[in-house]
Fold this protein.
Amino acid sequence: MIAPRTCPICDATIPPDVRPEGTSAADRAFPFCSERCRNVDLLRWSQGKYAITEPLTPDRLLHELGDDPEAVEQLLARESEEEGD
Ligand SMILES: [Zn+2]
């Protein structure tokens, strides 16, 4: 006997006739019970991704530019020139 598959998001039992190779809405949501739960999973992934992505702070920018304060100043000067035009 095969154990019933359950939705990884809400633990709802997924009907045995739902298959990843199918074409119905339920099939497309596989392995989740519904489109909604699939979106919840996507959202969790994207939030996790944002959590490990460092925001672009001046310090971070400095690091990216190889700790060269002049490069940062030039970059900021260029930006303010464009704004003032
Ligand atoms: Zn679900």
The pocket of zinc ion is lined by residues 7, 9-10, 12, 32-34, 37 (CB under 6 Å). The chain is about 55% helix and 0% strand. The chain has a mean pLDDT of 80.
